[in-house]
Amino acid sequence: MTQPIYSIIAPIYNEHESLNELYRRVSSVMDAAGENWEFILVDDGSRDGSTEIIHQLAQGDPRIRPVIFARNFGHQIAVTAGLDYSRGKAVVIIDADLQDPPEVIQELIKKWKEGYQVVYAVREEREGEGWFKTLTASLFYRLIYRITDVKIPLDTGDFRLMDRDVVNVLNTMRERHRFLRGMSAWVGFRQVGVPYKRAARFAGTTKYPLRKMLQLAENAVTSFSYFPLQLATYMGFFAAGLGIIAIPVVIALRLTGWQFFIGQATTLIAVLFLGGVQLISLGILGEYLGRVYDEVRGRPLYIVSESPTNEEENED
Ligand code: UDP
Ligand code: MG
């Protein structure tokens, strides 16, 4: 097989019920596109039989290239591995649970052919997700938008098409705590959004519990903003300012015989409040420090127990 024009990447963590349907829908869309394509299925340490189904699919269709992780590394890392192994001139990232309808890929490709290098799909509507997920997701996108230096488009996930030029740049960015939609906004190039309706999950339940969502949010904030660190400075100035104002006020009150600050409550509140602020600031410092440590340690981003063979290598 010659170099494919399109690479489709799907990260998979325990999605055995969706895989056959995913393959069916993606291949019917991509066959209609009329050009060579490959389908990179990244198994992020599934334990529900997804791995076997991926192997079966790969046996039936040489365009499927399985990347099997040694354990669960997380969604963003799985997508990264897919990008590393992709060879297409245009690369599409899609969720394996069919919440991103494969049919939208046609529209992404259309924009790519018009010359856009990053075509991201914007969620206009969400189906089958509870109010909590919808609300937190919406708040999350708006918070990130406000406090980061990169203007990450609102309500976009990782469902997107990227040109080879963009993927090549992203592949040089090896940071550990990844927020791919931020990184792909950061690189620039010609970008455009395409609206779509996010469907309900085809089967199974979300693989993003609150803990993982918070982690993603933390990664997004720390990767693209120093605002939490600066918060300590602002609070410091505020507290110091308050103290400086308080000194003459208290002296004046004392001299004029007012007995305003009696008892220990005021002291106690001030100590508790400032102690709290200091501990929180330390914790924020710790978040950044831990990330720096992770980067310095320089471990590989992921470990594969099985990677796709390159046809070119086999021919030698
Ligand atoms: N996923 C993954 N590793 C993980 C968690 C999720 O590869 O640790 C995959 C998952 O199989 C799916 C995609 O990432 O294809 C998005 O996850 P999910 O649908 O659970 O997230 P949600 O849509 O609920 O935010
Ligand atoms: Mg999903």
Highlighted features:
single chain; 316 residues; alpha/beta; 8-stranded mixed sheet; 11 helices; 8 strands; 50% helix; 16% strand; elongated; disordered C terminus; binds uridine-5'-diphosphate; binds magnesium ion
What does this structure look like?
This protein is of the alpha/beta class and 316 residues long. Helix content is 50%, strand content 16%. The chain is built from eleven helices and eight strands. The protein has helices at residues 19-33, 50-60, 75-85, 105-113, 131-147, 164-170, 180-186, 210-224, 227-255, 265-297, 311-315, and strands at residues 6-12, 37-43, 64-69, 90-93, 118-126, 156-163, 191-198, 304-306. An eight-stranded mixed beta sheet has the order 7-5-6-4-1-2-3-8, sandwiched between helices. Strand 2, helix 2 and strand 3 (64-69) form a beta-alpha-beta unit. Helix 9 packs antiparallel against helix 10. The chain is elongated. Bound molecules: uridine-5'-diphosphate and magnesium ion. Magnesium ion is lined by residues 95, 97, 99, 201, 206.
Strand content: 15-25%
Strand order of the largest sheet: 7-5-6-4-1-2-3-8
Number of helices: 11
What are the secondary-structure elements, in order, as H or E? EHEHEHEHEHEHHEHHHEH
Radius of gyration: 25 Å
Shape: elongated
The portion of residues assigned to helices is 40-55%
First-residue to last-residue Cα separation: 14 Å
**Mean pLDDT score:** 89
